[in-house]
Amino acid sequence: MTRIKDALDAVAAAIIAQKDYLTDLDAKTGDGDHGLNMARGFRAAQEVVEEMDDTSKPGPVLQAIGKALIHNVGGAAGPLYGAGFVRAGEACDEDTHMNVVSMEKLLRAAIEAIQKRGRAEKGDKTMLDTLIPIHECFLPENAQGKTLFEVLQEASKAAGEGVNYTKTIAARKGRASLVGERSIGFEDPGAVSSMIMYRALYQFLKN
Ligand code: ADP
Ligand code: MG
Ligand code: MG
After folding, report:
1. Please, which residues have CB within 8 angstroms of residue 17's CB and are 6 or more apart in sequence?
2. Distance CA 14, CA 9 (A)
3. How far is the CA of 99 from the centre of ligand 2 (A)?
C-alpha cells in the first residue's frame, strides 16, 4: 500500500471521467448531482493528500480521504463514503498490506461504517449492493486457495453483477426511495460509483 497516493489519483481520475454519466443516472431517480458530488469530493481528497508530509502509511491517508469526502460533499453518498474511508483507515495497522486479508478487513470496516450511518441493507438499491458482493469475495471461505489477483478479478465481476442487480429492484433508501417502484430499470448511482472506484483500484493494481 505504499502507492496509496497513486491509487487515490487513479480512483479520482476514474470518478472525474464518469462525472456526467453518474450525474445523468442520478437525474433519472434522484436529484442529478451524484457525479458532481463525487468529483468535488475526490478533488478535495487529492488536494488534502497532496499536502500530507507522509503518505507511506495507508491508515492516515484513508482517514484524510474520508474526512475530505465528509466535509466537501453535500448529499447522502459523500458522508457515507467518507465514513467508510475513515473507518477503513482506523482499521489499518502495521500488518496492513495489499493482500486478501487486509482487503477483507478494510472493506468490512467500511461497510460497517456505511451501514451504521445509513441503516441500509443489501437489496435496498444503494452502494451496498456493490460493496457487499465485493467484500464477500475476500472472505476466507471464498478466497481460499486463490491468488490476490484472482480474488481481485472475481470482485470486479461481482461489482458488475451488483450494479446489474440494482436495475431489477426498487430503491428503499435515500432520495431514490421517493420514486420507489419507478426506480426499477435504472442502475443505482452509488452502486455504479462503487463499481467505478473498485475497478479503478483493480486496474491500478494490475499495472
Ligand atoms: P443525494 O441523494 O443526497 O443527492 P448522492 O446523489 O450523491 O446524494 O448519492 C446518492 C447515492 O447514495 C444513492 O445512489 C445510493 O447509492 C447512496 N445512498 C443513499 N442513501 C443511502 C443509505 N442510507 N445507505 C447507503 N447508501 C445510500
Ligand atoms: Mg443525488
Ligand atoms: Mg443531492
Report:
1. none
2. 9
3. 34
* Residue 155 lies in domain: 4-206
Q: How far is the CA of 76 from the centre of ligand 2 (A)?
A: 7
- Is 0.85 exceeded by the ipTM? yes
pTM of the model: 0.97
CB atoms < 10 A from the CB of 149, how many? 11
Condensed to tens digits (0 to 9), the pLDDT of residues 177-203 reads 999 899 999 999 999 999 999 999 999
End-to-end CA distance of the chain: 14
Whose atoms come closest to the Cα of 111: which ligand? 1
CATH assignment of the domain containing 118: 1.25.40.340
C-alpha grid cell, residue 189: 448511482
Whole-number pLDDT of residue 167: 98
**Four-residue CA torsion sign, 45, 50, 51, 52:** positive
How many independent structural domains does the chain possess?
1
